[in-house]
Fold each of these.
Amino acid sequence: MSLIDAALVIGGIALAWALLGNLGGMVSFGHSAFVGVGGYVSALLTARAGLPVPAGLLLGGVGAVLAAVVMLPVLRLRGPYFALAILAYAHIFRILATEWTSVTGGAAGVSGVPPLPVIAGIDFGGKTGAYFVILTIVCVFAWIYARVSASHYGLALRAMHDSEDATQVLGVNSTLLKAAMLLLSAFMTGVVGAFNAHYIGFLEPDYAFAGLWVTLPIVAAIFGGYRTIGGPLLGAIVVYLLDQLVFKSLISSGHQLILGALLVVMIVFSPRGLLPLLTRRRERDA
C-alpha cells in the first residue's frame, strides 16, 4: 500500500506535468519547485498556525501558484530555454528553503507535520486512508484536465502547437493561455506536494525539492503516454512498481539504469506511450 500511495503521488505530478506539456506545449524541468513550495506552505501553516490539514492542502496549491507567478516572465522563452529557466527557479526555491532558517528550519527541516485527519472514524493518516485521499485528488485533477482539454481553450491550445502565429492572428492570446496552464499545473503539483508532506510527516529542502520529483514524473508521463489523460497515471504505477519491486531487487545500486533502458525501448517501439499501444492492440483484436 505504501508503494501504491507513492506511485499515485508520482502519478499526480506526472499528470500535472503532462497537462503543461500537452496543452501548454511547454516542457518543464522545474516541477520540483511546486512540489517543495506546496509541501512547505501546507506543513508550516498546519504545524505552526494550526490550520486544518484539508485547508493546508488547498493552500499548498495556492502557494505553488504564487511560485508560478514569479516564473511567468520565462514564458517569453521557448523550448530548452524555457525548461532550463524553470529548472533554475527550482534551484532558487531550494536555496531559499535552506537559507531561510527562521521560517523553514533550514537544512534541519520541518518536523512534526500533522498527519491527515481522522474523519467519521476513518483514519486518513494511515496507508489505506491516505490511498483514498490521493486517489480522490488524482481523479479530480484528471477530470479537470479532461474538461480543459475538451473546452474551446483546449482547442486553441492544441492549435497553437501547429502554428502559434496563426492562432494569434485569429485573436487567441497565446501568452495568457500558456500562463493559465502553468498556474493550473502548479496548483495541481502543489496540492500533491502538500499531501506528500502530511503523508510522510517530515520535510527538508533536499527532499522537498529533490530531482526525483522531475525525473520520475517525466519518465512516467512519457512511458504511459503524456498526450493522454490516463497515460501518466498508468505510467507512474507501472514504472514505479517495476522499479521498486523488480529492478531494485535485481540491481540494488543503479537500478534506475534499467528503468532508463525500458523508457528507450518504449520510445522506439511506441513513441506515443504504453496506453495508446494497449488501446491500438485492443482495437485491432476487436
Amino acid sequence: MMSSTYPIGTANTPWGEVEKAAWLKQQQIQRSYQSDVLSQLNALQQDFDVEQYGRLDHRELVGADYPLFAVKSRCWDPAKPSVLVTGGVHGYETSGVHGALAFLRQQALSYSQHFNLLVLPCVSPWGYETINRWNPKAVDPNRSFTKQNLTIPSPAPESAQAMQYVQSVTANWLAHIDLHETTDSDNSEFRPAKAARDGTVNTNWNIPDGFYLVGDTKQPAPAFQQAIIEAVAKVTHIAEPDEQGCLIGEPLVQSGVILYDTKGAGLCAGMTDAAFVTTTEVYPDSPRSTPENCVLAQQAAICGALDYLLNQR
C-alpha cells in the first residue's frame, strides 16, 4: 500500500542539503555505543586480537566521532579458510550487533580452530545510537559497499573504512555472514523517508513474520542457505512467503531464502569474493519473538553456516 507523505521535503523532489539537515536535526541519541558495544571488547582480548580499524569523524555533523573495531582470530593463518561476520551495518538492527558479540563470547573460540574469523560487530555506531538505518548524511551504508577508486569513493565512510580494512587482511575468504533485521519501522519510517529523499513514490511491502536469508544471485549456494535455515529453525520460526510467493517484494527461491545481486546493489555481503555469502534477517517485532530470541537466531545462523562449511571439508 502507498505510504502517507513524509513530513520533510516536497513530493517528487529529491532532498537537497536543507532537507537533509532538517532530517538530521530530528535524530536523537537513544542508546550508547560505548556502553553496549565497546565495553564488551576488553574481555575478548584474552582470546582474540581486537583491532581498531578506523574512526568515523562525525564531529561537524553531530558533535562526536566513533572508533571502529574488529575482533580477529589470534595466530591468523593465511593458509586456513577465512570467514567474515559483520553486524550493525544498519545500526538500528539491534540483534545483528548483539548477535555478533554473543557469538564472539560463546562460540567463536571453538570455531577458530578451523577458520580464521574476522568479526566487525558494529559497522555503523551512530546509526546504532540513534536507532537509524542511515548515517548522518542520510546515506544508507548497506547500499554503499561499492568498489573504491580515486575518483568514485564509497558515499558512506562506514562502508569505505570497513572495505579498506577487510581488503588489507591477507585472507582466503570462504564465507561472509552479514547480520540484519527487518522491522516494522521499515514501512513506518525508513521506506517513506527513502522515497522522500530520492523524490520517488513509496510502496510498502509486507514485513515477513520470521527469519529469512538473502543470498547472492550470482552464487546462490542453496545447500549452504538451507543449512542456515535448518539451524535457525531450531530456535525461531522461518518466514512464510506472502500471497505472491515473495518476501519484501522478491520471489522466494527456497524455504526462507530470496536473492539479491549483492555486489551490484552495493550490499555489505558483496564486499569480498567469498564463495558463500548470506545476509540474515530476523523480525524483532513479531509477537512470536523476543530480543533474546533474535540474538539466538543470529548466533544459530553463524554456527549453522560454519558447521556446513566444516562438513564440506
Amino acid sequence: MTDTPLLAVRDLRASFPGPEGPIEVVHGVDLELARGEKVALVGESGSGKSVTARAVLRLDAGATLTGRIELDGTDLLTLPPRRMREIRGSGVGLVFQDPLASLNPVMTIGWQITQPLVIRGVSKKVARRRGVELLSRLGVRDAERRFDDYPHQFSGGMRQRVVIAIAIIAEPALLIADEPTTALDVRVQAQVLRLLHELADERDMAVLLITHDLGIVAGFAERVVVMRHGLAVESGPVEEIYARPRHPYTRALLAAVPRIGGDLSRPLATIGSAVETAEEGTVSPS
C-alpha cells in the first residue's frame, strides 16, 4: 500500500430506518485502495459488502453514513449533492450485477454511453466518437452501427460490456464492480474479468470487486477483504488469505468452494456449519 491511498474508508457505519429506530448494517469498516490496485470485497449475501461499496458514492438515499470516505484526500461524506454527482462517473465508476436493469430500455445504448461525457460539456460528436471507439475496444463488433441499438438487442455479455463502457468512458480513477459476472455464463464471466483486468492496467485504474464467488477472486484481485454481518473480519494479500486464512468465517467460505477432483460423495459444507466447525479448530482450507 502507498502512504496516500486513492480510496481510504475509515470507521464506516451505515444505518437504515427501521420500525423501532435506525438499524446499523455496516459496523465500522476500514478499507483502502491504492491507485491501480485491484481489491475484492467478499462475503455471503447480506454481509454488507454492497452497502459498503454503494456508500462510497452515497447511492442509498435512506442510509445514514458516518465515518470517513476519502477519495484522493477528499471526504466524500462532507460534499454537497451537486459535487457528488460530478464525482460519480468522473472520479468513481460503477458496474452493477444486472446489466439489463442498469440500462434504460427506451434509450439507445449510444445515448447512455455518451451521457457521462455530454453532461460534462463534451460535444455530442466527440462523445459519440469516443463511445464508438470504447465499445469497439470492449469487444462489440460493428460498434458504429450497434451504437444506435437498444439494450434488448444485446446479449447479456454484450450488455455488461455496455455497462462497463458507461462506467469508464469518463476515465474514473476508481471502478466499483458489484457482482459484475453473476448473471453470466462461465465463459463470458472470464471474458468480462479479463477485460476489467486489462482496463485497470492500461488506465492505472483501481478496481473494487464485490463478489461472493471466491473462485474468481484468486485470478483477479491482489488483496481481499472478507465481510460478515457488516464487519470486515479479515483482509490481506489474496495468496496469503487463501493459503493461511485466520478467521473461522474465511476458512468456512473456502471450505465451501467446490474443488475439481474432490470427493463427490461428500456434500459441500454449509457456511453456518462450517463456521461452527472452524471455531472448534477442525476446518482446513485445503
